[in-house]
Specification:
Layout: H1 2-34, H2 38-71, H3 80-110, H4 121-159
Amino acid sequence: MSTLLRAIEFLSLSLWLGSDIFLSFVVAPGTFRILSSRDQAGAIVGHSLNIMHLGGIMCGLVLLLARLARTKTFASLATPAALCVVLMIALTAISQYTVSAKMAALRVQMGSIQATAADSPLLGEFSRLHRISVSLESGVLLAGIAAIYLMAKELTLIAS
């Protein structure tokens, strides 16, 4: 049972990281490159980001629950690997429920990002929030890579 729970931990983190990498490096750039309307591309990427965020939070919670079930101690949630996952969940929640929500409200106010004047304060605020969103996603990705490394390191310590 321990091996199955550990596999669920790795699978959960791998799914989350894979979706983040795929959205960031394939879906988003490809959508903006293929579609002539930046508004449509933004809507597709925003929708995909929403699904990825919710899926990521779920993957993080599944990982932590599997870890707790495997170790049968709350102390396992204070290990560096688990803390990286907690950080990933926090950054994702901030991105989803604060930054993305504000960006969606600005999109509605502007009507069309593509047609909004470059010197518009609304567009300036949208751009600022977009930079924050990218930083948060980068933080999730880096914390996830660290978590994978730390989880693998835990395995090598057990095997030694």
